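Intended use. Records like the one below are meant for learning the mapping from a protein sequence to its folded structure. Do not use them to infer anything beyond what is encoded.
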Amino acid sequence: MKIAVKNMVCNRCIAAVQSIFENLKIDVNQISLGEVETKDEISDKELETLNLKLKSTGFEILQGSTKKQIERIKTLMIQKISEEDLGDDFILSEFLSSALHRDYSSISKLFSQNEGVTLEQYFILQKIEKVKELLLYKEFNLTEISQKLGYKSVQHLSNQFKKITGFSPTQFLNSKEKKRIALDKI
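Structure written out for the chain above:
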C-alpha cells in the first residue's frame, strides 16, 4: 500500500516518519520523500491512528490525487535544490515535465490554482531558503552558493535575495535575527 505523506522535506523527515511507523508496528517496504510503501494493507482504524501520530509531528497523510500531485511537485523541487547542483542552464519546466511525464502548462496550472503561487515563485522561495541555510553554515562563499544553485551571477542571487527577504545576503548574515522559513511552510 502506498501512502502519500505531506511535509516530508529532508532525510530527518524520513527518519521521523519511519520511527512513527515502527512505533505503530506497521511494516514498511520503502520510505522516500513524500511517500511510504507498506508491506501490507492498513485498516481504516490504523490509518486514522497513523494520521494522528503524523499530524502531531508536523506531517499528514494526503488524501486525493490533486494534493498528492502537488506534494510530488514540491518534493521534486526541494530534492533538486538540496542536491546543490543546479547548472545556470537548469530549466524548471523541462525538469518537471520530464520527471512527471506531463505537459508543463498543466503542471503549472494545477500548482498555481491550488497553491496561490506560481511554480517559478515557489522554486525561487525554496532557493532563497537554501541560500540562507548555506550562508549560515559559512562553508561556501556567495560565488560558490550562486554556482551551486544555478544563478548566472552573484549579482543575480543578491538581487533576488534582497527582493524576497528585504536584506542583501551580507545584511542577512549581520542581522541579529537570521530568520529562516521551514521548507514545508513555503
